[in-house]
Amino acid sequence: MPELPEVETTLRGIAPHLIQRRVIGVVIRNPSLRWPIPDNLPQLLHGQTVRDLRRRAKYLLIAFDHGTLILHLGMSGSLRIQPAGTPAAKHDHFDLLLDTGQLLRLRDPRRFGAVLWHEGDIAQHPLLATLGPEPLGQDFDGEYLHRAIRSRSVAIKQALMDSHLVVGVGNIYANEALFRAGIRPQLAANKLSLPRCRRLAQNIKEVLLEAIRQGGSTLRDFVHSDGGSGYFQQTYFVYGRTGEPCRVCNTAIKQIRQGQRSTFYCPVCQR
Predict the structure, then answer these.
(1) Exposed, middle or buried: residue 193 (CB in 10 Å: 0-12, 13-18, 19+)?
(2) Which of 56, 58, 107, 196 is catalytic?
(3) Active-site annotation holds for 58
(4) Does domain 4-124 have CATH number 3.20.190.10?
(5) Does residue 2 carry a catalytic annotation?
(6) What is the pTM of this model?
(7) In this predicted model, what pLDDT tens digit does every residue of 206-250 receive, in sequence order?
């Protein structure tokens, strides 16, 4: 599933092709995604100019003068910039046609993605209104994390994946950040001291930034807007490395299940 670095990589790939470009058409081939694509989007967007493009959590927000197009990649989605007239494949459900002779195409084999429209303050949309801070922003640091988890007895890894606490720290990067911070993922969140929260918050930022620099992780479906791959998976310390030696101490990496997700950790390096 595309996580924050993959969505950020997608944003940086498509932004130069979209901002200040005029929409000359919208093609909806299959409206049945996680939520139905609004059938009046062609009328709403025809002739309108893209004013801005930004990310909030794992949502991409394309701003127009009269509202915002909300895109989500779901479990298997990708956005690609292609020449207008490029034949659509089986899972190409939505196109935004641009005045440059290009198009923005959503490909989503599992159809858990989203294409939605919102007028008014986008921060008040039901999908965004209750989200926690961005992990790469100034509002997220060790002091905030310590305050936010001090009454939570849930395991720290599961707490990090709660978007009301902090957005965008998905399974891969929660595993990797906890390893770098030396924190066992099963540890109750409210057992973390302020110094450990500071170290964890800093490692979350470092892992995400490193992943963005490497174009994210390409696992199964994710590709860049140009069809290329990410490379961060080549540097994983724990994720997906069950039974392999820890890169620090050579102890075999262990795998457990937490909240229906696989968790990977080193029983020696993480306490």
Answers:
(1) exposed
(2) 58
(3) yes
(4) yes
(5) yes
(6) 0.90
(7) 999 999 988 765 444 444 445 544 455 568 999 999 999 999 999
